[in-house]
Amino acid sequence: QVISDFDRTLSRFGCNGRRCPTSHNILDTSRVISEDGKKKLKDLLHYYYPIEIDPNRTLEEKCPLMVEWWTKAHELLVQQKIHKGDIAQIVRESEAVLRDGFKEFFDQLHKNNVPLFIFSAGVGDILEEIIRQANVFYSNVNVVSNYMDFDDDGVLTHFRGPLIHTYNKNNTVLQGTGYFQQLSTRTNIILLGDSMGDLTMADGVPCVENILKIGFLNDKVEERRGKYLDSYDIVLESDETLDVVNGILRYILAE
């Protein structure tokens, strides 16, 4: 089975010298957010993002601050009275780009009945729409993320719990979903991530025999390289493709 992060792992980090948006960014900068709302969300990003990627801070320090960031951001989004009906258009108008080779990646897994579990601290409604618009939302794809709840008029009222942030992507937020239990015979895992927090995504899998951890190192490459090399089996720097992953899948699935 493949367990993957979404933002900047399946989607690109940069394109033509600019940063590509994450699923949160797509919403934060869209036309449905007021100018004041945009400014507040940007301020949160500038304050908390450096903390999120600081190699010198411990997880214990980071976790409560990440909960604080996500909670404040979600509250701001709820105040914007976002309409469910606008989501497809928001994604269409965005600069979201999946990594080069995404089609082969999704197609190979689907054709060979390999489950793809996307574990994301982003906005589930947005990332599902990105995959849908790319025509690769197949039956083998499962997503666990932060989903929005709407009232009868289709207006955002709150985000469904439990809150998923960068550093709690593990079985604590999967309790009761039984996802990995159904896949207990899938003892070989390819894990794809772009942050240190993604390394725990397979923690709920029973009886793991082999796990290959592939990390995309997108940002602050020099200062984070050591940590990534210690933690991931393969580290891909400044790579906007899924070529390495596709090559490995091709090799495994051809056997």
TrEMBL record:
<keyword id="KW-0963">Cytoplasm</keyword>
<keyword id="KW-0547">Nucleotide-binding</keyword>
<dbReference type="InterPro" id="IPR023214">
    <property type="entry name" value="HAD_sf"/>
</dbReference>
<dbReference type="GO" id="GO:0000166">
    <property type="term" value="F:nucleotide binding"/>
</dbReference>
<dbReference type="Pfam" id="PF05822">
    <property type="entry name" value="UMPH-1"/>
</dbReference>
<comment type="similarity">
    <text>Belongs to the pyrimidine 5'-nucleotidase family.</text>
</comment>
<protein>
    <recommendedName>
        <fullName>5'-nucleotidase</fullName>
        <ecNumber>3.1.3.5</ecNumber>
    </recommendedName>
</protein>
<comment type="function">
    <text>Specifically hydrolyzes 7-methylguanosine monophosphate (m(7)GMP) to 7-methylguanosine and inorganic phosphate. The specific activity for m(7)GMP may protect cells against undesired salvage of m(7)GMP and its incorporation into nucleic acids. Also has weak activity for CMP. UMP and purine nucleotides are poor substrates.</text>
</comment>
<keyword id="KW-0479">Metal-binding</keyword>
<dbReference type="GO" id="GO:0008253">
    <property type="term" value="F:5'-nucleotidase activity"/>
</dbReference>
<comment type="subunit">
    <text>Monomer.</text>
</comment>
<keyword id="KW-0378">Hydrolase</keyword>
<dbReference type="GO" id="GO:0009117">
    <property type="term" value="P:nucleotide metabolic process"/>
</dbReference>
<dbReference type="GO" id="GO:0000287">
    <property type="term" value="F:magnesium ion binding"/>
</dbReference>
<dbReference type="InterPro" id="IPR006434">
    <property type="entry name" value="Pyrimidine_nucleotidase_eu"/>
</dbReference>
<keyword id="KW-0546">Nucleotide metabolism</keyword>
<dbReference type="InterPro" id="IPR036412">
    <property type="entry name" value="HAD-like_sf"/>
</dbReference>
<keyword id="KW-0460">Magnesium</keyword>
<dbReference type="GO" id="GO:0005737">
    <property type="term" value="C:cytoplasm"/>
</dbReference>
